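Protocol step 4 of 5: obtain the predicted structure for the target chain.
Materials: sequence only (see below). No template structures provided, no constraints applied. The aim of this step is simply to have a reference model before the mutagenesis design in step 5. Sequence pasted as it appears in the construct record:
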Amino acid sequence: MSSLSTTTPQDGDRLTQPPQAREASRIVRFDVPLSAPAIDQPREDRREVGCPTRETWTLYESGPDGVAAGIWICEVGRWRIAFAPRKHEYFFVLEGRLRLHDQAGGVTEVVAGQGAVIPGGFEGAFEVLEPVRKHFVVVER
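Step 4 output (structure tokens):
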């Protein structure tokens, strides 16, 4: 018999305490936010098509670790983007359709149910073809 099967939990063992007595979890769920989003639009000098409103709920920030995650909603439009060399973004599209255009003329379309990574140093255009709602994780190191 293994030692795991014969070990008795200690009184202070977190896993044997009732849920309300456990230390608050550091896990962040991406539920519908109760707070108001940060609302903005692409800078005028970067706009190519339209002036879409963007809503961002940053649900997690790690401060010095350079990680932020949340929910982002955007209307139809297109604007130029330029990522710093150490900034990377993973995102997963929940609703809508978008395209990323690189400077060499390449196009990557991402639709609901798909994810993608925008690598550090990327320059091109971000185009929302159908209103988008996505989860995002940004890492800047």
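Step 4 remarks: Strands lie at 38-40, 47-49, 54-61, 67-74, 77-82, 87-102, 107-111, 115-118, 123-140. The longest helix spans residues 3-6.
Proceed to step 5.
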